[in-house]
């Protein structure tokens, strides 16, 4: 007997009347329809989210029809799961996404676990991905990238960084070219670096069919041929919700941009004040 492969769906409903046994009723209905529950979690106090599995879209459609007959709940979402859906079920809260620019995702320091999981899922995807991460110093940007790489079972490589000491690479060895690597570029460091070999390496890395993460992407595009539209994801990490992400202090230590704007002393060092130290976690 040939068994059909089961497909996943994301189910989310709002609880109108939180009566005893409601979850059991929904679970029983799923079981009666031959639909399995892969994962379940509550979101806020009134929303319940599931990952369900079925070998038949007809079963899912019939379940959807029956679910709409239950007055105690209101169906919100039933679709093939997206990344943000899987994370909502896993963590019991939504990833914050900009309403106007769907590439922008916002996190706060208390969300580091969610952020690491979010990045790990992106890192697991095959092929080129260009990710920018904005945030003020010592908020946890670099550590989150490294932790996401570990979670995704990927090796990370710093092209430029101020994590422990300033790193500016001008070449890679043979074993460091790998589509499964995560290449990390500190856009502030690279923006001020005058060594043409470093800039050539950055351009070479950007062409690799792999994941590239650029800290301070706004500074990176100031001195490169890339624009913000080239990024697949923009992550904003704040210490708290209302923290402003400002780059003026960093711009004072970068070189002339591609727009011929002089941002000050080209020899000014960033120092630890512009890096993300492990101690910040």
Short description:
The protein is an alpha/beta fold. Helix content is 29%, strand content 25%. It has an eight-stranded mixed β-sheet with strand order 5-6-12-7-11-10-8-9, sandwiched between helices.
Notable traits:
eight-stranded mixed β-sheet, single chain, 281 residues, alpha/beta, four-stranded antiparallel β-sheet, 9 helices, 25% strand
**How many helices in DSSP terms?**
9
What is the radius of gyration? 23 Å
- Terminal residue distance: 53 Å
| Strand-pairing-aware structural class | alpha/beta
The percent range for helix content is 25-40%
The coarse overall form would be: elongated
Biggest beta sheet summary: 8 strands, mixed
- Oligomeric state of the chains present here: single chain
Low-confidence stretches: 259-281
Helix/strand order: EHEEHEHEEHEHEEEHHEHEH
Order of the strands making up the biggest sheet: 5-6-12-7-11-10-8-9
Domain DUF3388: 77-262
Organism: Staphylococcus canis
Protein name: DUF3388 domain-containing protein
Pfam families: DUF3388
């Amino acid at each position: 007997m040939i068994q059909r492969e089961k497909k996943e769906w994301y189910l989310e409903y709002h609880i109108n009347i939180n009566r005893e046994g409601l979850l059991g009723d929904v679970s029983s209905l799923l079981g009666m329809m031959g639909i399995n529950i892969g994962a379940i979690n509550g979101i806020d106090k009134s929303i319940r989210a599931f990952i369900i599995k079925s070998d038949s879209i007809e079963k899912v459609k019939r379940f959807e029809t029956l679910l709409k007959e239950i007055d105690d709940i209101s169906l919100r979402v039933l679709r093939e799961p997206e990344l943000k859906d899987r994370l909502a079920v896993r963590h019991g809260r939504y990833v914050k996404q900009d309403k106007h620019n769907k590439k922008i995702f916002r996190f706060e320091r208390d969300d580091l676990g969610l952020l690491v999981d979010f990045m790990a899922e992106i890192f697991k995807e095959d092929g080129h991905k260009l990710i920018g991460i904005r945030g003020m110093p010592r908020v946890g940007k670099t550590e989150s990238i490294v932790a996401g790489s570990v979670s995704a079972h990927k090796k990370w490589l710093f092209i430029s960084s101020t994590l422990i000491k300033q790193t500016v690479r001008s070449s890679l060895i043979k074993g460091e070219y790998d589509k499964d690597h995560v290449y990390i570029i500190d856009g502030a460091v690279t923006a001020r670096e005058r060594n043409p070999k470093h800039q050539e390496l950055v351009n070479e890395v950007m062409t690799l069919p792999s994941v590239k993460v650029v800290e301070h992407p706004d500074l990176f595009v100031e001195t490169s041929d890339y624009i913000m539209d080239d990024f697949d994801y923009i992550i904003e990490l704040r210490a708290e919700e209302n923290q402003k992400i400002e780059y003026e202090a960093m711009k004072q230590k970068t070189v002339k941009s591609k727009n011929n704007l002089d941002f000050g002393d080209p020899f000014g060092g960033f120092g630890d004040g512009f890096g993300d130290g492990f101690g910040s976690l």
